[in-house]
Automatic annotation (TrEMBL):
This is Nucleotide-binding universal stress UspA family protein. It comes from Flavobacterium aquicola. It comes from the Bacteria. Residues 1-142, 223-273 form the UspA domain. The lineage of its organism: Bacteria, Pseudomonadati, Bacteroidota, Flavobacteriia, Flavobacteriales. Pfam families: Usp (PF00582). Gene3D superfamilies: HUPs. Belongs to the universal stress protein A family.
Length: 275
């Protein structure tokens, strides 16, 4: 892992993501890029035609740059190559635009408030938009983690053919984190599969890969989100991971707002891969 992108709004949630990013970077000799999206108040949006707003915009930008430089001096970022970037753009839109222009990142790490998903800049719909649109895996950090470990990586899926390509990335991350891979298929009243049918699907799926140590279970629950969270809690999962379809929708396994629900409601880190 050579390069990690960490968006920050200077909140404590973003700081928690930076601390995890530092731990991962030190383990893998990675570079960190800290990016702040300076979303200007509405009255400044017409700065090009309103010359009086330009000095105020530059003041905001300079303050953001100074804050990023102060973050760079924190002890836990010592011995890590850190680059700071400030851009004038909306939160999720700006992040996704930057990713498209700079696709050499291996991982994006974002901090999230969690349950309510409405009060901070990098939560709720903004996080969901980055998760849905990013071609790069996104790790969402929900709480402060003093010693980041991923010994148990939960991967929830329907194990359809479209999952095979992003699953290669899942295997790379399980190797990177030295994780045991816990595969799980959530069966709900609307997506029931017999035990024999589920095992047949997964056995055929994994037969195409050089698998590390892994386990597979079927977990029955009233809905997929609750099933993933409950399974992860019962099996001491360190990270919940799954694949998304991107802009159009989630796979037929992850319909509706499952991705957003997991990002907002899970207390564990969430790692997403785009199909």
């Amino acid at each position: 892992m050579k390069k990690i992108l960490i968006p920050t709004d200077f909140s404590k949630y973003a700081d928690e993501a930076i601390e995890v990013g530092a731990q991962i970077a030190k383990e893998n000799n990675s570079e960190i890029v800290l990016i702040h999206m300076l979303e200007l108040p509405t009255h400044m949006n017409d700065a090009i035609s309103n010359e009086t707003s330009i000095p105020e915009i530059m003041l905001f930008k300079r303050k953001a740059e100074e804050t990023l430089k102060s973050i760079k001096t924190r002890p836990y970022l010592s011995e890590i190559k850190v680059t700071e970037i400030v851009r004038l753009d909306g939160a999720s839109k700006g992040i996704n635009n930057y990713i498209k222009q700079n696709n050499d990142f291996d991982l994006i790490i974002m901090g999230s408030h969690g349950s309510t998903g409405i009060d901070e800049i990098f939560i709720g719909s903004n996080t969901e938009k980055v998760v849905r649109e990013s071609e790069i895996p996104v790790l969402v950090i929900k709480n402060k983690i003093e010693n980041f470990k991923a010994k148990n990586l939960i991967f929830a899926s329907d194990f359809s053919n479209e999952i095979k390509k992003p699953f290669k990335k899942v295997l790379e991350f399980s190797k990177l984190f030295e994780s045991k891979l816990n595969l799980v298929m959530i069966c709900t009243p609307n997506s029931f599969k017999s035990t024999s049918a589920a095992h047949k699907i997964v056995n055929e799926f994994v037969s195409e890969f050089d698998m590390p140590e892994y386990s597979f279970e079927i977990y029955n629950e009233s809905n997929i989100e609750k099933g993933i969270i409950n399974y992860s809690n019962e099996n001491n999962g360190d990270i919940i991971s799954f694949c998304t379809h991107g802009r159009t929708a989630l796979s037929h396994f992850f319909t509706g707002s499952i991705s957003e629900d997991l990002v907002n409601h899970s207390s564990k880190p969430v790692l997403t891969f785009k199909i």
